[in-house]
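Reviewer 2 asked us to include a model.

Predict the structure of this chain.
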Amino acid sequence: MSTALQWFKSSYSGSEGGECLEVATTPRSIHIRDSKTPDAAPTLRLSPTSWTAFTDSLK
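Predicted model (structure tokens):
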């Protein structure tokens, strides 16, 4: 039985819309999607290790 992902936007995202990404996590993966087209767009799925490497590279 699969559970629906719980998507969230960054606390840095404003409420006026625009270009935002949404993220959902499971113990084994990080899912990323475009908030403007949540049902139509494909999602990107990363391992926690890859997500950490990505976010560390932004510092």
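Helices lie at 48-57. The first helix runs from residue 48 to 57. We have added this to the supplementary material.
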